[in-house]
């Protein structure tokens, strides 16, 4: 599994927290994150979207999306486990699950993301 980026984005595509794990230009990651809300349909039952180049694995969190951008060759089950782990950390570190709460916990969330993912690969950790 190769995670290109772990992010929390608003419904409009604004990146609130984003951590890249591979060498990627800022313009490319911003483009990927901005394109994501347009791909998500209302009432979808799936938690992933595949495009020509990447796979978006996501989880809605109130008015935001927790998002992993992965390669298409990555293991979707491993990606979902990683997303679940990061979701637990977001709930643990953020006082409120809105733009302001995520902004206040920005650094803690980035460090927590790094504990779960290293160089694009999931680490063997658990939430205590």
Brief rundown of the structure:
It is a peripheral membrane protein. Helices cover 38% and strands 29% of the residues.
Task: Please describe what this structure looks like.
By secondary structure, this protein is of the alpha+beta class. The chain has one domain (3-122): 2-Layer Sandwich (Beta-Lactamase), CATH 3.30.450.60. The protein has helices spanning 26-39, 76-93, 99-104, 106-116, and strands spanning 3-10, 15-20, 48-50, 54-61, 64-71, 117-118, 121-122. A five-stranded antiparallel beta sheet has the order 2-1-5-4-3, sandwiched between helices. A hairpin with a 2-residue loop joins strand 4 and strand 5 (64-71). Helix 2 runs antiparallel to helix 4. The two termini are 24 Å apart.
